[in-house]
Design a protein that fits this description.
Blueprint: E1 14-25, E2 30-39, E3 49-55, H1 69-76, E4 81-85, H2 97-108, E5 118-128, H3 130-143, E6 155-159, H4 165-168, H5 181-186, H6 195-200, E7 216-221, H7 230-241, E8 246-251, H8 265-277
Parallel strand pairs: 3-4, 3-5, 5-6, 6-7, 7-8
Antiparallel strand pairs: 1-2, 2-4
Helix pairs in contact: 2-3
């Protein structure tokens, strides 16, 4: 028996992938972007999509840039150009080198906009875990004039962000980890005794009513075993108390720290809705 289905071809987006775009050369260290973008065979050259500069989590160590390509594709199929950025790991460059990398990537993107369907007036920062920390610190440094100026950001999405290094320092280290990642990020052996340095690399001290920030979306698992949910709860409260636009979604009873849960259709709906309204 013949069965008929109807699909609107105009709404069906594919994802194309273009790898290893060098956005900055430090001489002995080149950094790259992985580019994913929406595509339809009948797509007009005038059709443009918002860009998400995605900052991967890696405990600030070297990032694995290819394993998550299929997950980034889910964002591209939702109508985003995704630029997944490689940043200098803490082992070779302490904080705030990672913020400097974000600045370089954001200034590079307009130079390749003719190669991709990028709406350069709609750029979002998004990161998970240490990437969420870098995304938030980038806009806070920008707001205070502590880094080179970069294009206007329409919104920031932090998933499981390790945004308070002092909260992170209270969490037990896994038995296989000898040195706390946040200590390596700061170029010290221990956070204990270096609390002032840790505070300068955390979000809270930079959030005031006077600065201007783009809308912010926070997502965190309630039972995250890697980065305490207190990071996002505390950040939300400080942002809200200082009258900044912030939304916070906590995944009840969930232990996921990134991964497939954060690409569930319900989470993607939240991200898409946030970006459309920002």
């Amino acid at each position: 028996m013949r069965k008929i289905i109807k699909i609107d071809e105009q709404d069906a987006l594919q994802c194309l992938y273009s790898q290893d775009w060098e956005y900055y050369d430090y001489g002995n260290c080149k950094r790259h972007l992985q580019m994913l973008f929406p595509y339809r065979p009948d797509m007009s050259s005038e059709e443009k999509y918002p860009l998400i500069l995605f900052i991967p989590g890696s405990a600030w160590h070297k990032q694995e840039m290819y394993n998550d390509i299929p997950q980034y594709a889910a964002l591209a199929k939702r109508g985003f150009v995704v630029a997944a950025m490689e940043y200098r790991e803490s082992d070779i460059a302490p904080f705030p080198a990672q913020v400097e990398d974000v600045c370089h990537a954001l200034r590079f993107i307009p130079t390749i906009a003719n190669h991709f369907p990028i709406d350069t007036s709609r750029i979002f920062l998004m990161g998970n875990s240490s990437g969420g920390h870098i995304a938030m610190m980038s806009i806070l440094f920008q707001a205070h004039g502590l880094c080179e100026q970069f294009p206007e950001i329409s919104g920031v999405i932090s998933e499981s962000g390790s945004t308070d290094l002092l909260i992170c320092a209270k969490e037990p280290l896994p038995p296989w980890m000898k040195t706390r990642p946040s200590a390596v990020l700061l170029g010290v052996d221990h956070i204990e005794g270096n609390e002032a340095l840790a505070q300068k690399a955390s979000c809270a001290m930079y959030i005031t009513e006077e600065i201007t920030l783009p809308p912010i979306l926070l997502i965190h698992s309630e039972c995250d075993p890697m980065v305490s949910v207190e990071n996002s709860r505390t950040l939300h409260d400080i942002l809200a108390d200082n009258h900044h636009e912030v939304s916070y979604y906590e995944i009840e009873g969930c232990k996921a720290h990134g991964g497939a849960v954060f690409y569930d259709s319900r989470i993607l709906d939240i991200i898409q809705d946030f970006c459309e309204k920002a």
